[in-house]
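Record type: monomer structure entry
Structure origin: computed from sequence
Chain ID: A
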Amino acid sequence: MKEGELGRLYSHGEIIFKEGEKGDVMYVIQSGKVKISKNSSSGDITMVTLQRGDIFGEMALFDKLPRSASAVAEGDTRILSIDKKKLFSTIWKDPTVVLKVIETMSSTIRRLSKDFAELKKKKQNMLCGTMDLEETCSFILEEARENIVAAENGSIMLLENGQDRLHIKAAFGEQAQEKLKLAVGEGVAGDVVGTGKAELVNEVLTDSRYKIGSLEIGSLMCVPFKYQGKCFGVLNLSSRRGNRFTLDNLKLLNSFSRYAAIALKNVLCMSDLKHATEEVLKHASILDVY
């Protein structure tokens, strides 16, 4: 690492900071690029790639929490580090620095607010939706694909009647795995139902849980449907090799699945009630005959 006139020069692949480390400075990219990534059970997930003029690590100047992600140089990159003391002195020389910090933080807040508003809207739509299970599953998949995360394939798998196997209720894209059934704990989807934790796997062939089929899948997201703490199904989205999902995609899809779970549970409960009512009427009709 060489010292520059203003910032420090990082070589390709050099770590600027690691997730979990204590942070007390922010950074400004003077030239080159920086990859921001987060660790997961399936490996590092690239969240975003920043370029010249971008600011990162700014929250370290406002809280005392550990770094929430790692930063690595992409190619030769020159970066200026700024601590609180340096920030205040820099403001007098170049007020645009603090404006850039505010702009970066505001952009993040604005994006999160927009995502939250969209999710609230979808929540209302789903809770007032159709009472047919297959139609509801298809509707949820369509919403996920068009408004949450773009994907080439997707499916909803549910546990049926207290059984421990997942059955596909709706799907889009290539239908090679339409009849796939997984037991709890089997495959990525079965594992997600068992643990209740969302999963992102950007290299599925390196994951021992993945059930290899005829689909050429590279990246996979699987989020659980939970109601009162119990998992009863999953939502899967996948893409071909080369099209990678991000941690932000996973977070948004996982939030969406919470609202979708309520809609699905309502339909399932109504279906059970309808079945019970039909059984009562059936037996009542038999009794009337005699």
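Annotation 1: The longest strand covers residues 26-40.
Annotation 2: DSSP finds five helices and 13 strands in the chain.
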